[in-house]
Amino acid sequence: MRFFSRELDFSYQSKTWFYVGTTLAQTLTIFTSFYILKLFSPSDFGTFNFFISIGSFVGSFTTLKYELSITVSETKSEMYQKAFFTIFLSIFLNSLALIPIYLFANLDSRLLLFVYSLAVTVSVNACLQQIFLYKSYHTFSGAFPFVGALVNLAIIMTFLNTPNILIVAYTTSLTLTGLLFLLIVIFKSRIRDRNIFRSFKNVFYDNISYPLYILPSSLASIILTYCHPILLTYLYGEHQVGLFSFSLRILMIPSIIIGSVISGLLRAEMAKSFYQTDMVAIRHKTLSTIKILGLSTIILFPCIVFGIFNLKYFTSFQKWNGVESVAICLTPYAVSQLFYLPLSNVALVLDKKKILLFLSLIQLCLTLFMYWIAHYFDFSFKIFLGMLSGSFALFTIFACRKFYLITLQVGK
């Protein structure tokens, strides 16, 4: 029990567990992908990702982005108030979102359960990660995705030849894993403040800037993460969606391992420095983040592209011909996401949410504009990917410069 009650700090060793757990989780995810390649064709994989995108989109949206306020808290009591308010709010809104999905999506009960369970899982897990970051439970932050990936691998290996059972078991495992970690946190935190559940109204109004500014700002990121398969299905077809989804899943590994971990740690550390009015530390953390991300790009992306080109030597890859060229086209896009996600925390923590909203609106308009051009001029799939990647690389250079300028302006 000492493992669960130990109060971790922001030491190098505790951060290492976060990186190690996330890396192991992604290693298992890659290993799982080889089983998925045997189970699905590109078209089947595209269809599977279509429904995953619906559930993930709903789950990301129904928190109203209040979960990002959890780490930006002065006291532990305030943090728990925000966390439980966000969890209950997201479950309520996910249930409401189930009604139009049922009425208009025309899904059978199995797929409806899949979408709803995944949406709730995404919402609750987002809150859990913020709780871990605030309390410096980096061992939990690393163990959480690893346990989920391990369970998913076991399920896929067990139900490899029964896809109908697999799709339900996959989501149920994610949901149960998230609830298990949530129960452990509640039990070990020994919450005695009875006013936590009575203060939801205050949390709602005191942090109203998150749904007003951060929620619209996150819309572009949510669309980029989850709605590409939906839009590509209607523009090009399920086969191209499968190639796109698989390539991006591999190329986004640096963003998941390096980007998301640095993003969470940076937000928590910057919040502490912000409450201490230490702007020098914030600028130092921002510059260090840029250097780490740059070094990660130089080392990791060539290795990933090389690995994709040599997948054919390790698995039956005839059905996936063309994934190599798609990966090349998407590499600038993946690099831009690696930089944008962590550095956007500068605007979030330093209360420049309007700038974040402005940049996100540009990102959203740019995405829709690329799709419109591809549709209007009937561009090929690869030309569209090249345009999308190139435009986002230029946007990210502009946005990151803007984020760094904020650290120079605030506090003067």
UniProtKB/TrEMBL annotation:
Keywords: Cell membrane, Membrane, Transmembrane, Transmembrane helix
Ranges that cross the membrane: 16-36, 48-64, 84-105, 111-128, 140-159, 165-187, 208-231, 243-266, 292-313, 325-343, 355-373, 379-400
Name by which UniProt lists this protein: Polysaccharide biosynthesis protein
Any Pfam family the entry gives: Polysacc_synt
Coiled coil segments of this chain: none
One GO cellular component term: plasma membrane
Main localization (coarse): membrane
